[in-house]
Write a structure and sequence with these properties.
244 residues, alpha/beta, Rossmann fold, 2 domains, six-stranded mixed sheet, four-stranded antiparallel sheet, 9 helices, 10 strands, globular, binds adenosine-5'-triphosphate, AAA+_ATPase, transport, P-loop_NTPase
Length: 244
Protein backbone atom coordinates (compact mmCIF):
# COMPACT_ATOMS: atom_id res chain seq x y z
CA UNK A 1 0.00 0.00 0.00
CA UNK A 2 1.38 3.42 -0.86
CA UNK A 3 1.36 6.23 1.68
CA UNK A 4 -0.85 9.16 0.79
CA UNK A 5 0.14 11.09 3.93
CA UNK A 6 3.50 10.84 5.68
CA UNK A 7 3.89 12.41 9.11
CA UNK A 8 7.50 12.41 10.30
CA UNK A 9 8.62 13.43 13.80
CA UNK A 10 5.97 16.13 14.04
CA UNK A 11 5.89 18.27 17.19
CA UNK A 12 3.68 21.22 18.07
CA UNK A 13 4.21 23.36 21.14
CA UNK A 14 1.91 26.00 22.58
CA UNK A 15 4.22 28.05 24.83
CA UNK A 16 5.27 25.52 27.51
CA UNK A 17 2.81 22.82 26.46
CA UNK A 18 3.69 20.08 23.97
CA UNK A 19 0.36 19.28 22.30
CA UNK A 20 1.86 16.85 19.73
CA UNK A 21 5.20 15.27 20.58
CA UNK A 22 7.45 13.71 17.92
CA UNK A 23 4.65 11.81 16.17
CA UNK A 24 5.29 9.74 13.03
CA UNK A 25 2.87 7.62 11.00
CA UNK A 26 1.51 7.13 7.50
CA UNK A 27 -2.00 7.11 6.09
CA UNK A 28 -2.13 4.61 3.26
CA UNK A 29 -4.08 4.88 0.04
CA UNK A 30 -7.71 3.78 0.55
CA UNK A 31 -7.24 3.26 4.28
CA UNK A 32 -9.44 4.34 7.19
CA UNK A 33 -7.15 5.26 10.09
CA UNK A 34 -8.82 5.91 13.45
CA UNK A 35 -7.11 8.27 15.90
CA UNK A 36 -8.15 8.00 19.53
CA UNK A 37 -6.91 9.31 22.85
CA UNK A 38 -8.17 10.99 26.02
CA UNK A 39 -9.31 14.61 26.05
CA UNK A 40 -6.38 16.91 25.36
CA UNK A 41 -4.25 14.12 23.84
CA UNK A 42 -3.49 16.23 20.76
CA UNK A 43 -5.91 14.77 18.20
CA UNK A 44 -7.42 18.00 16.90
CA UNK A 45 -3.99 19.64 16.89
CA UNK A 46 -2.73 16.77 14.72
CA UNK A 47 -5.57 17.28 12.21
CA UNK A 48 -4.84 21.02 12.13
CA UNK A 49 -1.16 20.34 11.46
CA UNK A 50 -2.08 18.10 8.52
CA UNK A 51 -4.70 20.44 7.07
CA UNK A 52 -2.37 23.42 7.52
CA UNK A 53 -4.40 25.57 9.91
CA UNK A 54 -1.51 25.14 12.36
CA UNK A 55 2.22 24.98 11.59
CA UNK A 56 4.38 22.34 13.30
CA UNK A 57 7.15 23.45 15.64
CA UNK A 58 9.26 20.62 14.19
CA UNK A 59 8.90 17.72 11.78
CA UNK A 60 7.68 17.12 8.25
CA UNK A 61 4.39 16.36 6.54
CA UNK A 62 4.24 14.88 3.04
CA UNK A 63 1.27 14.37 0.74
CA UNK A 64 1.65 11.80 -2.05
CA UNK A 65 5.39 11.90 -1.42
CA UNK A 66 5.71 15.69 -1.73
CA UNK A 67 6.59 17.90 1.26
CA UNK A 68 3.67 20.16 2.23
CA UNK A 69 4.87 21.32 5.66
CA UNK A 70 5.29 24.90 4.51
CA UNK A 71 2.13 25.15 2.39
CA UNK A 72 -0.81 27.22 3.68
CA UNK A 73 -4.15 25.48 4.31
CA UNK A 74 -5.81 26.63 1.08
CA UNK A 75 -3.02 25.14 -1.02
CA UNK A 76 -3.29 21.84 0.84
CA UNK A 77 -7.05 21.87 0.17
CA UNK A 78 -6.31 22.37 -3.53
CA UNK A 79 -3.96 19.39 -3.49
CA UNK A 80 -6.80 17.28 -2.08
CA UNK A 81 -6.71 17.44 1.72
CA UNK A 82 -10.23 18.05 3.08
CA UNK A 83 -11.27 18.28 6.72
CA UNK A 84 -14.31 18.64 8.91
CA UNK A 85 -14.28 20.84 12.00
CA UNK A 86 -15.17 19.70 15.51
CA UNK A 87 -16.87 23.02 16.17
CA UNK A 88 -19.31 23.48 13.32
CA UNK A 89 -19.70 26.97 12.01
CA UNK A 90 -22.05 27.00 9.03
CA UNK A 91 -21.88 30.24 7.06
CA UNK A 92 -24.73 32.19 8.69
CA UNK A 93 -27.65 33.12 6.48
CA UNK A 94 -26.57 30.83 3.64
CA UNK A 95 -28.69 27.86 2.64
CA UNK A 96 -27.51 24.33 3.31
CA UNK A 97 -26.88 23.97 -0.44
CA UNK A 98 -24.75 27.12 -0.65
CA UNK A 99 -22.74 26.15 2.43
CA UNK A 100 -21.70 23.03 0.55
CA UNK A 101 -21.24 24.94 -2.72
CA UNK A 102 -18.62 27.08 -0.95
CA UNK A 103 -16.65 23.87 -0.38
CA UNK A 104 -16.97 23.07 -4.09
CA UNK A 105 -15.69 26.54 -5.04
CA UNK A 106 -12.49 26.20 -3.01
CA UNK A 107 -11.66 22.54 -3.32
CA UNK A 108 -9.25 20.17 -4.99
CA UNK A 109 -7.55 21.47 -8.13
CA UNK A 110 -8.59 25.06 -7.32
CA UNK A 111 -12.29 24.19 -7.10
CA UNK A 112 -15.23 24.72 -9.38
CA UNK A 113 -15.29 28.29 -10.76
CA UNK A 114 -18.88 28.22 -12.03
CA UNK A 115 -21.48 28.75 -9.27
CA UNK A 116 -24.16 26.66 -11.01
CA UNK A 117 -21.73 23.77 -11.37
CA UNK A 118 -20.63 24.21 -7.74
CA UNK A 119 -24.28 23.98 -6.67
CA UNK A 120 -24.78 20.89 -8.81
CA UNK A 121 -21.80 19.25 -7.16
CA UNK A 122 -23.07 20.41 -3.75
CA UNK A 123 -26.49 18.86 -4.39
CA UNK A 124 -24.84 15.52 -5.17
CA UNK A 125 -22.92 15.66 -1.85
CA UNK A 126 -26.10 16.51 0.09
CA UNK A 127 -27.77 13.54 -1.52
CA UNK A 128 -24.78 11.37 -0.62
CA UNK A 129 -24.90 12.29 3.09
CA UNK A 130 -28.72 12.20 3.26
CA UNK A 131 -29.36 15.95 3.58
CA UNK A 132 -30.94 16.64 0.18
CA UNK A 133 -34.32 17.49 1.68
CA UNK A 134 -32.78 20.34 3.68
CA UNK A 135 -30.96 21.91 0.70
CA UNK A 136 -32.93 25.17 0.70
CA UNK A 137 -33.13 25.59 4.47
CA UNK A 138 -30.81 28.02 6.26
CA UNK A 139 -27.77 26.08 7.48
CA UNK A 140 -27.77 27.72 10.92
CA UNK A 141 -31.27 26.35 11.51
CA UNK A 142 -30.14 22.72 11.15
CA UNK A 143 -30.14 20.47 14.23
CA UNK A 144 -26.90 18.98 15.64
CA UNK A 145 -26.91 15.61 13.80
CA UNK A 146 -27.67 17.30 10.48
CA UNK A 147 -24.86 19.82 11.07
CA UNK A 148 -22.44 16.89 11.38
CA UNK A 149 -23.60 15.65 7.99
CA UNK A 150 -23.29 19.18 6.61
CA UNK A 151 -19.66 19.28 7.75
CA UNK A 152 -19.06 16.04 5.86
CA UNK A 153 -20.84 17.28 2.73
CA UNK A 154 -18.80 20.52 2.79
CA UNK A 155 -15.54 18.59 3.01
CA UNK A 156 -16.62 16.11 0.30
CA UNK A 157 -17.61 18.94 -2.04
CA UNK A 158 -13.93 19.89 -2.05
CA UNK A 159 -13.39 16.55 -3.83
CA UNK A 160 -10.57 15.54 -1.50
CA UNK A 161 -8.20 12.63 -1.90
CA UNK A 162 -7.78 12.56 1.88
CA UNK A 163 -10.58 13.33 4.32
CA UNK A 164 -9.75 14.34 7.89
CA UNK A 165 -12.78 13.88 10.15
CA UNK A 166 -12.74 15.54 13.57
CA UNK A 167 -15.41 13.93 15.76
CA UNK A 168 -18.16 13.69 13.19
CA UNK A 169 -20.06 11.27 15.46
CA UNK A 170 -19.94 13.24 18.73
CA UNK A 171 -23.40 13.87 20.13
CA UNK A 172 -25.13 11.42 17.77
CA UNK A 173 -27.32 8.55 18.91
CA UNK A 174 -26.49 4.93 18.00
CA UNK A 175 -28.65 4.90 14.87
CA UNK A 176 -27.15 8.17 13.65
CA UNK A 177 -23.64 6.86 14.38
CA UNK A 178 -24.32 3.76 12.27
CA UNK A 179 -25.55 5.99 9.45
CA UNK A 180 -22.39 8.11 9.54
CA UNK A 181 -20.26 4.94 9.58
CA UNK A 182 -22.03 3.78 6.43
CA UNK A 183 -21.46 7.17 4.78
CA UNK A 184 -17.74 7.04 5.64
CA UNK A 185 -17.43 3.51 4.28
CA UNK A 186 -18.99 4.70 1.03
CA UNK A 187 -16.55 7.64 1.00
CA UNK A 188 -13.71 5.14 1.16
CA UNK A 189 -15.27 3.17 -1.71
CA UNK A 190 -14.81 6.35 -3.77
CA UNK A 191 -11.07 5.87 -3.26
CA UNK A 192 -10.74 8.57 -0.59
CA UNK A 193 -8.34 7.82 2.29
CA UNK A 194 -9.73 8.80 5.69
CA UNK A 195 -8.25 9.83 9.02
CA UNK A 196 -10.98 9.88 11.63
CA UNK A 197 -10.84 11.19 15.20
CA UNK A 198 -13.52 9.75 17.39
CA UNK A 199 -14.36 9.16 21.02
CA UNK A 200 -16.94 6.43 20.41
CA UNK A 201 -14.67 3.37 20.63
CA UNK A 202 -17.19 0.87 19.31
CA UNK A 203 -17.81 3.02 16.25
CA UNK A 204 -14.18 3.70 15.47
CA UNK A 205 -13.26 0.05 15.97
CA UNK A 206 -15.81 -1.16 13.45
CA UNK A 207 -14.88 1.59 10.98
CA UNK A 208 -11.08 1.63 11.09
CA UNK A 209 -8.56 -0.57 9.32
CA UNK A 210 -5.95 0.68 11.76
CA UNK A 211 -5.97 2.56 15.05
CA UNK A 212 -3.45 5.09 16.32
CA UNK A 213 -3.51 6.18 19.96
CA UNK A 214 -2.27 9.53 21.25
CA UNK A 215 -1.64 10.20 24.93
CA UNK A 216 -0.22 13.51 26.19
CA UNK A 217 0.71 14.30 22.58
CA UNK A 218 2.71 11.09 22.07
CA UNK A 219 1.87 8.14 19.87
CA UNK A 220 1.58 5.16 22.22
CA UNK A 221 0.14 2.58 19.81
CA UNK A 222 -0.45 2.11 16.08
CA UNK A 223 -1.79 -1.11 14.56
CA UNK A 224 -4.79 -3.29 13.95
CA UNK A 225 -7.77 -2.25 16.14
CA UNK A 226 -8.04 -5.44 18.24
CA UNK A 227 -4.34 -5.48 19.08
CA UNK A 228 -4.26 -1.76 19.88
CA UNK A 229 -7.36 -1.86 22.08
CA UNK A 230 -5.95 -4.69 24.17
CA UNK A 231 -2.52 -3.03 24.53
CA UNK A 232 -1.81 -2.47 28.23
CA UNK A 233 -0.63 1.13 27.75
CA UNK A 234 -3.78 1.98 25.81
CA UNK A 235 -6.06 0.36 28.37
CA UNK A 236 -4.34 2.26 31.15
CA UNK A 237 -4.09 5.60 29.36
CA UNK A 238 -7.46 5.73 27.74
CA UNK A 239 -9.96 2.95 28.20
CA UNK A 240 -9.17 2.47 31.87
CA UNK A 241 -9.69 6.15 32.55
CA UNK A 242 -12.98 6.23 30.69
CA UNK A 243 -14.25 3.16 32.52
CA UNK A 244 -13.19 4.51 35.91
N1 LIG B 1 -4.40 27.16 20.31
C1 LIG B 1 -3.99 26.59 21.44
N2 LIG B 1 -3.30 27.29 22.35
C2 LIG B 1 -2.85 26.71 23.50
N3 LIG B 1 -3.04 25.41 23.82
C3 LIG B 1 -3.73 24.67 22.94
C4 LIG B 1 -4.25 25.20 21.71
N4 LIG B 1 -4.89 24.21 21.03
C5 LIG B 1 -4.78 23.12 21.81
N5 LIG B 1 -4.10 23.39 22.94
C6 LIG B 1 -3.76 22.43 24.01
O1 LIG B 1 -3.09 21.34 23.38
C7 LIG B 1 -3.49 20.12 23.98
C8 LIG B 1 -4.06 19.20 22.92
O2 LIG B 1 -5.32 19.73 22.50
P1 LIG B 1 -6.20 19.06 21.36
O3 LIG B 1 -7.42 19.91 21.19
O4 LIG B 1 -5.36 18.80 20.17
O5 LIG B 1 -6.59 17.68 22.04
P2 LIG B 1 -7.70 16.63 21.63
O6 LIG B 1 -7.07 15.30 21.77
O7 LIG B 1 -8.27 16.98 20.31
O8 LIG B 1 -8.78 16.86 22.77
P3 LIG B 1 -10.39 16.63 22.76
O9 LIG B 1 -10.61 15.17 22.68
O10 LIG B 1 -10.79 17.20 24.08
O11 LIG B 1 -10.93 17.40 21.58
C9 LIG B 1 -4.48 20.47 25.09
O12 LIG B 1 -3.78 20.54 26.31
C10 LIG B 1 -4.99 21.83 24.68
O13 LIG B 1 -5.40 22.59 25.80
Amino acid sequence: MSAVLGITNVTRRFAGLIAVNDVSFTLNQGEILGVIGPNGAGKTTLVSLISGTLAPTAGDIAFEGRPITKLPAYQRARLGIGRTFQIMRPFPGLSVLDNVAVGALFGHGGGESDLDKARELARAQLDFVGLAKFADQRADELGGPSRKRLELAKALAMQPKVLLCDEVMAGLNLVEIDEVIEVLKRVRERGISILVIEHVIKAIKSLSDRLLVLHHGEKIADGDPDTVLSDARVVEAYLGRRRA
